[in-house]
Design brief:
Largest sheet: 6 strands, antiparallel
Oligomer: single chain
Strand content: 5-15%
Number of domains: 2
Number of helices: 18
Structural class: alpha+beta
Length: about 425
Amino acid sequence: MSYQSARDLPSFLELERQLKSLRLFVWPMRAQAKAIQDQMHELADTVDAFYDLLSEKNWIFHDHLSLTAVRTILAQAPQEADRAEAMLIEHYHDSDRLWLMIHPLRKLPAMRRRLPLVEKAREDYLAGRYYSCIHLLLSVMDGFVNEFETQRRGLHTRTPEELHAWDSVVGHHRGLKHAHRTFTKGRSATREDAVYELYRNGIVHGSILNYDNITVATKAWNRLFAVADWAHARHREQQQQAAEPLTWSGLGRQVKEVWGSFMERAEIDRVEQQWKPREYLPGSESFISHPAHVCTEQLLSCWLRGNYGTMSALITHGLHNKHGKAVRSKVREAYEPFPLASFDILAVGHDMPAACTVTVRLDHSHGARVVAALRWVREDDQAYPKPDPWPGEWRLVIWEPLHFLARSSALPSE
């Protein structure tokens, strides 16, 4: 079954029951419970309004879509689906925003293996190579769904009913199941007119020819994130079915975790929207004391000395979660071919609350000199970005030197 409203999600219904009980029987908690309940209703109404406006264009509200961006769209284009769609596409096309949506995909092992392809798709998307981006993301989605469950079948073979997402906003009756009806269309008759839907079969089998546009490419990203949410929901549903029956209080804790996480992301999103980018340059105390500067100096000093063990402690948690104790050998393998002779830190660009780009000059032992950009993210132990004051550590996320050196600018040796 699908949910007619975000208010019909099991976690919403259960937490609402608990909050009503708190307001009735625990008098000191009454104001706090009312505030949480109001926030929950606002979140659910945002999801429903999004689907009311954009579901006919087959957009899906997924878990990592910016709530602030959605609310801005709903406020500025409440009855203009075309304008709302254009604003949503603009949001996806922001390089940093897209990267923040991609980053949590590494939590799914079958998706983590496909992240190099996802990164290539991101580069193609931002460079306007939409045809390439679309094909890459379609292959990632099919392969991911095929591997995710023991029943080996790609996304294009699934019926809409198989894509119900338990206790998830993509399980809305206008969500993933609704949008999937276009996925397998268009395989027979050749079409040369422009299309703006993600007709997977028609695109892959060459019968739909004019799909190379930003709308279809952005819908491919939207579908990828929705499919990832579906996978998370399937995993949670299987865990719930296999687990011992929960007590009322145990279920309450589980529900609070789901909605507490959702509301935390809403608050983080609010902080990000209010953030003003800042740049720190040499000669100021704020430059030297900035945590990204401190981490960069430590990382490059370790690289210079060949101390790969300490260096690995500054690399994204995603690498540690993937390789465990083998992470040190992975870092050594990546950095040892590029011995560092000296370095200078040139600037710290704190462009997002939980993300920085540190510009550095690197002098290598073989005589090459380059200016490179190191991307740091303040993340939790699950590699999810967390700005201050939430618990987190600054970690290097694009960590392989081949990646950031490939984007560097060569300088003449002095």
